[in-house]
Amino acid sequence: MTSASLDLNTETRREEAAGQRLQVFLAHAGIASRRAAEKIITEGRVSVNNRIVSELGSRVFPGDAVLLDGKKVQKESISAYLILNKPPGYLCSSADPQGRPLALELLPNENNQRLYSVGRLDFMSCGLIFFTNDGDFAAKLGHPGSGLEKEYFVEATGHISDEVISAFNQGICIEDVFYRAKAVHRVGSRCIKIILIEGKNREIRKIFSHFRLHPSLLRRIRIGPVQLGKLAEGESRALTLYELKELKEKLYGNCN
Q: Using one digit for the tens of pLDDT, what is the confidence trace for 105-154?
């Protein structure tokens, strides 16, 4: 057993001894994100050991019977943390009324776990995206304030001028929204690498459109310490223990 797995097991034992916040338990069970779980609790839909719990701050312990709308809630026995190299033309959603292909359908899921994507990539964008059944982890990872760098490789249909790179680096206001990258590096006449922190909705595409450019390829190649690497389009893999430990340290600090 590696030192990373020992660290994670120690954290789990400490958490069980101190009890776990009810909203965190629900998130880890794949019911909803932690914030959505808080709303479920305050609505009086959750009971612990046959007692309705509607106030936040309650804790649950191993062996407690937790019910949501009268049905037993069980924490996933195995937490799943996957990355997928999403191809263009796949939707990051659990369902689509238009019947478009779902990125979720590309994942192997022999254990029938309730997996969901963390954050989104546009329908025609591709690259690295996380999937998990750990709601609390997903909420922290997907929060705009997580501080995690997100790196993209972008190829345009035409030459990318220095003016465009300067707009990314110095910031630009488009339709009353201010956009600014952490760093931009030219790779070629039509190719750049962009590092974002917050990553506003369709930020890269909106700046390109402002300069009458169109990305022919927009691929996310890194989130925090996790690199897309040589993972083929449509393929997935589990996070390594090292990657998971690094991510949790960045997201939770010393609060695990």
A: 999 876 567 788 887 899 999 999 999 888 778 888 887 778 899 999 99
Task: Give the E-state strand segments of 79-198 in sequence order.
Answer: 81-86, 116-118, 126-132, 150-156, 172-174, 177-179, 183-186, 191-196
CA distances from 50 to 20, 44, 64, 70, 137 (A): 18, 12, 10, 9, 28
In this prediction, residue 134 carries a pLDDT of 83
Backbone angles phi, psi at 115, to 5 degrees: -100, 145
pLDDT at 182 over 90: yes
Which one has a higher pLDDT value, 209 or 141? 209
Q: Which domains does the chain have, with CATH numbers?
A: 3-72 (3.10.290.10), 81-145+226-252 (3.30.70.580), 149-223 (3.30.70.1560)
Q: How far apart are CA 174 and CA 2, in angstroms?
A: 49
- Is the pTM for the entire model greater than 0.70? yes
What tokens appear for 16 in the block? 């069980």
CA nearest 104: which of 114, 112, 94? 94
pLDDT tens, residue by residue, 42-78? 999 999 999 999 888 889 888 889 999 998 887 656 7
With a CB cutoff of 8 Å and minimum separation 6, the contacts of 156 are 190, 191, 208, 213, 214, 215, 216
How many CB atoms lie under 10 A from the CB of residue 153? 19
In the numeric block, the tokens 């954290």 are attached to 11
- C-alpha pair distances (Å), 44 with each of 20, 30, 48, 174: 19, 19, 11, 43
| Active site (catalytic) residues | 122
- Overall average pLDDT of the 15-31 stretch: 74
Query: Which distant-in-sequence residues (6+ apart) come within 8 Å of 239 by Cβ?
Result: 81, 82, 83, 226, 247
The token pair that represents 90 in the structure block? 């796949």
